[in-house]
Amino acid sequence: MDAVTSLDQQFRFLLEADQLKGVLRQSPLADGSRRENSAEHSWHIALMAVVLAGHAPPGTDLSRVITMLLLHDLVEIDAGDLSVYADEAAQSRQATAEAAAARRLFGLLPAGQATELRALWEEFEQRRTPEARFARALDRLQPMLVNYHVGGGTWRAPGITAPQVQAKADLVADGSATLGEYAHALITRAVEHGYLAAGGSAG
Question: Which terminus of the chain has a smaller tally of CB atoms within 10 A, N or C?
Answer without folding.
Answer: N
